[in-house]
Design a protein that fits this description.
The relative contact order is 0.14. The longest helix is centred in the C-terminal third of the chain and has 39 residues, at about 215-250. The chain is mostly helical and about 300 residues long. It is globular, with a radius of gyration of 24 Å. The chain has helices at about 1-30, 35-40, 45-55, 60-70, 85-120, 125-140, 145-155, 175-180, 185-200, 200-210, 215-250, 255-265, 270-300. Helix 9 (about 185-200) runs antiparallel to helix 11 (about 215-250). It is about 75% helix and about 0% strand.
């Protein structure tokens, strides 16, 4: 187990360093940061002053290692637009994004797992085909379009839910539903295929021969083994939700990390953009590592893979 953990940690650290480097280089390749900060009406003298003030006149490799060293200590510098520490901005906005992501994953699991099990039990029937059709529609439906539809129907026409803001739990209902739609198809199909494979196994036939109840066979013996790949994809989907929350938070005006990223991109606030990309990537890497460890606990055969 220790060897498995050591290998996974090594891969996670290498991926994190790659993300660090790419997030730094991509902002530099997008253009001259001094010109972006100074604005279109700045003179050449103003641009040079900004370049010296922010250390942009130093060699690129010096800027990179300076930023890397500070980032490893949790210091992402100051925001050009918000005039405050970037780390403080992210810490203030992160609870909204985490709440949205966890609620979206919870809804996705509550919908996908029962439907996946039902489709496996009723394989090749109209129930199975209907569930697969739901998965196909969910996969093809753009999240921003679904968000706008819910806002018009549930918010404007029926008045059941607030359209935007973060004042109460009701503000998270529609964004969570929209966010869950991106995860439901993959979770549903994976649950279905895992249950079909499990129900055709020898130990399921043995359980039936012993006279165990249908519910016990499905839950205790079938789903327990089918859940191993679902655990991995659920953690990965949570990472996708947190990274993709920029669209949902912008549509519903939720002032989380995703909305902060959109504001920073529109205002050329590059320190915030770099930090948001890095933090979300590190969360995704951490969730992937956690899913690997959970799978190793559930299935000991993976520890030697």
């Amino acid at each position: 187990m220790l060897h498995f953990l050591r290998r996974r940690l090594t891969v996670a650290i290498l991926v994190a360093l790659t993300v660090l480097t790419l997030s730094f280089l991509l902002t530099r390749l997008s253009g001259d940061l001094a010109i972006s900060i100074a604005g279109p009406n700045a003179t050449q003298e103003d641009i040079e002053l900004i370049r010296r003030a922010y250390g942009l006149d130093r060699p690129l490799w010096v800027q990179y290692f300076d930023w890397l060293w500070r980032a490893l200590q949790g210091d992402f510098g100051d925001s050009y637009f918000f005039k405050t520490r970037v780390a403080r901005l992210i810490m203030e906005r992160m609870p909204i994004t985490m709440t949205l992501g966890l609620c979206g994953l919870f809804i996705a699991l509550c919908v996908a797992l029962p439907l996946g099990i039902l489709a496996a039990v009723r394989e090749n029937t109209w129930v199975d085909r209907s569930v697969l059709m739901v998965a196909l529609i969910g996969q093809a439906m753009p999240s921003f379009w679904l968000g706008l539809i819910l806002m018009v129907v549930l918010g404007l026409n029926l008045g059941w839910l607030p359209i935007s803001g973060t004042g109460s739990w009701e503000h998270y209902v529609m964004p969570s539903i929209v966010l869950s739609f991106s995860a439901i198809p993959s979770l549903m199909r994976l649950t279905r295929s895992g249950m079909i494979e499990a129900l055709a196994s020898d130990y399921i036939r043995t359980a039936r021969a012993k006279g165990l109840s249908r519910l016990s066979i499905l839950v205790k013996h079938g789903f327990r083994n089918a859940a191993i790949p679902v655990v991995a994809i659920a953690a990965v989907q949570l990472g996708f939700m947190l990274g993709g929350s920029i669209v949902i938070e912008t549509v519903f005006a939720l002032h989380g990390v995703g909305y902060l990223a959109w504001e920073s991109i529109s205002k050329n606030d590059f320190p915030v953009v770099q930090a948001v990309v890095l933090v979300l990537a590190l969360i995704y890497i951490g969730l992937t590592l956690l899913s690997d460890l959970l799978n190793a606990v559930l299935d000991p055969r993976l520890r030697s893979a």
